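## retry 2 of 3
previous attempt timed out at serialization; input unchanged, resubmitting
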Amino acid sequence: MGYRPLVRSELPVDTVALARFLIGKVVVRETPEGVLSGAIVETEAYGVGDAAGHAYRGMTPRTRSLFLESGHAYIYLSYGSAYMLNVSSEAAGVGAGVLIRALEPRDGVAIMQRNRRTERLRDLTRGPGRLAQALEIGPWADGLDLCQEGPLWLAQDDPESDGDFGEIGRGVRIGLSREADRPLRFYVRGNRFVSGPRPLNL
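## retry succeeded, writing output
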């Protein structure tokens, strides 16, 4: 695989900085059938005091994982149909997170294709609901420490691969009704696995 777990001290303890930092890092999912992975090519930041974020109204049983120290998983079900993978992004007790919006598939493509019931590589992990389905991510992962190896973790890519992703773009978040005009989405320009309408990805 050539990956190593991200060390928590490497993570910026700031939501916007973490959203950018995670571009090019790798989500690793270890299953009984094999390892699934993908490089992060799109994120969205939901910082402290953000009305569009789940932590805006304070900690609840549903959102407690957003208040863990930076580098923990927060999983929620969107519109009753798709799970979303988020990474807590601030100091312990401060609610904020980064949504992982899209991955470029790496390991375990055949398993992802089965999970997604499609052979189209571009559609496996392009979008937060798709990537969670492809990697078999569900409520079991809520609260996991993503800075240590296990069923789901964040990794640094092989050093020889660093810099292969090109320019990082920044734009507005997708599908929001509140604070929709804030430029808090980061993505790899020109990458075909980035989600959303093409005009937003230039």
